[in-house]
Amino acid sequence: MKSAAKIMYTIGKIFSIIEICMTVIGIIFGILVAIYAKEIAARADVSRTSEEIYRIGIAFMVAMIISFLIVTVVLCIASYARRSIDNGRVDALPHIIMIVIGIFGDIFYLLGGVFGIISENDETGKGAPQN
């Protein structure tokens, strides 16, 4: 179960890194929309004013910054959870946190947390009964 948990955490981390890259692109897009709001309003056939387009760009940029911060924290927690699998002590808390994060986001973190809890319990002898 250790290797399954490590694989799930690794796949989840890859998706988190992709998400970080996409949020950076989103931040840049929001900045560009805010900067060029007058040109967008003048050239495009939209019913919005340049002030509204400017506010949309700023709001998008702020949302992407918040998303970037959340994904960065989740990536740090996932790295800690992956390292806790082989640390030699029973530490279920990072896996529980990853299960909660997985419920709201990434299925790989959910599976990694479940497999991590199972591997932690197997180390302490609380797993399947031995005959």
Explain this structure.
The chain has helices at 2-35, 37-43, 50-83, 93-104, 107-123. It is an all-alpha fold. The two termini are 20 Å apart.
Assign a percent range to the helix content. Answer: over 70%
User: C-alpha Rg, in Å?
Assistant: 21 Å
Q: Uncertain runs with pLDDT below 50, 5 residues or more?
A: none
Q: What would the average pLDDT be, to the nearest integer?
A: 86
List keywords for this structure.
single chain, 131 residues, 79% helix, mainly alpha, rod-shaped
Task: Produce the secondary structure layout.
Layout: H1 2-35, H2 37-43, H3 50-83, H4 93-104, H5 107-123
Structure summary:
The protein has 131 residues and is mainly α. 79% of the residues lie in helices and 0% in strands.
